[in-house]
DNA sequence: GTCTATAGGGAGATAGAC
DNA sequence: GTCTATCTCCCTATAGAC
């Protein structure tokens, strides 16, 4: 075991990283399009331009591959949503939070759908992630909201139900986009549709929670 | 073709109806628990206490069976949600609508999950149903809301985004109940959790849309 | 690391006796 | 209508040559 790698090892590591990224990105598309169970490793291999055996070389089983895809999604997700900054008050923070969540639904629709499919299927991997997220991140946001309530900056609403609602409203534009398209009678959602969603949801939350500042 | 049936035919029809109901009810449970693609006709047969061939006798293919399950779900659903009564004004109507949707999430969780799974998988059957629903029902509700806005009874919000949000918030307690349980740190959701959800969502919608009466 | 060929296991669906 | 046995297909996963 050494940190010094010979050129050959570096090359191998590079090939490995490149192939893994290719497989993960392709899997994300195929899983989102076909559904988790209907997706076959053959489909992924074909779309990635690789023999099926190579996919299994990098990810022993389909389950391993799905978990790798989920892990990658969740890591990128966490980085793209800001934490609350208590000093700025609820208006700025909630507005930013909703905006970022809707942007996520738009720019990362596939990731969002895969997460939703895994969640509705109660995949252990996702449930564990959520349990952990609750302990590390959300409990902090919860305290912040309670501070704002005590300072009279917003109505004393249930923090849990508030988060559940914001997630539901913002994710629905990615997860159930087929339904949204029918409602809006459009073949594809445009940037303006997402902006209107942002505007509507932000208004409902801010006014609905009686946010002062 | 005659309306008069001989006793033998009546018996057969009875057996048929009974078995079909048994299969549909069992399928609803299994589909919701296992996911649509992971469910096998064998699982359904076992849980219903029938040989697999009998399931295929009544529903030629798995796809036919899923569509029959969806059709049954949607028929029961439509009957359990009231239409808007314009004269009563937005407060009563929106409160009742949210309450009925949450009750549905609680009492018919399996149906809700199957619908969500079919929708996220963009099953043609469900998309067609929604398109039809939009034409027959929702366009009427939309007009009603616009009347209320004109009468100054509520703020001029986007009807489409309002419906999308109410659906998202109420359905999430059924479809993603695993996530809700983690958030609320409970092993099972109780009646009081659903009542709190109702209370929170109703408040956000009524205050958020500036509903006067 | 790459790839062909194949093992091994079920799944959906049906034939045909009762 | 019921049920056993079976066909056929295709999926995951791996062995083994290159």
UniProtKB/TrEMBL annotation, chains A, B:
Gene3D superfamilies: Homeodomain-like, Tetracycline Repressor, domain 2. It comes from Marinomonas foliarum. Residues 17-77 form the HTH tetR-type domain. GO terms for biological process: negative regulation of DNA-templated transcription. It comes from the Bacteria. GO terms for molecular function: DNA binding. This is TetR family transcriptional regulator. Keywords: DNA-binding. Residues 40-59 bind DNA.
């Amino acid at each position: 075991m050494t940190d010094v790698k010979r050129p050959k090892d570096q090359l191998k590591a590079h090939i490995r990283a490149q192939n893994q990224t290719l497989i993960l990105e392709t899997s994300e598309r195929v899983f989102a399009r076909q559904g988790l169970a209907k997706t076959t490793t053959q489909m992924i291999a074909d779309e990635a331009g690789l023999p099926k055996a190579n996919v299994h070389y990098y990810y022993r089983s389909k389950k391993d591959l799905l978990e790798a895809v989920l892990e990658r999604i969740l890591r990128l997700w966490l980085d793209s949503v800001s934490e609350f900054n208590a000093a700025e008050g609820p208006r700025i923070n909630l507005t930013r939070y909703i905006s970022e969540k809707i942007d996520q639904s738009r720019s990362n629709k596939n990731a969002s759908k895969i997460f939703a499919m895994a969640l509705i299927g109660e995949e252990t991997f996702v449930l564990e992630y959520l349990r952990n997220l609750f302990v590390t991140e959300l409990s902090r946001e919860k305290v912040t909201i309670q501070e704002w309530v005590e300072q009279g900056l917003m109505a004393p609403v249930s923090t849990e139900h508030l988060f559940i609602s914001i997630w539901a409203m913002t994710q629905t534009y990615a997860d159930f986009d087929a339904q949204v398209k029918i409602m809006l009678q459009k073949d594809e959602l445009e940037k303006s549709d997402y902006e209107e969603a942002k505007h509507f949801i932000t208004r409902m939350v801010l006014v609905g929670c009686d946010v002062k500042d």
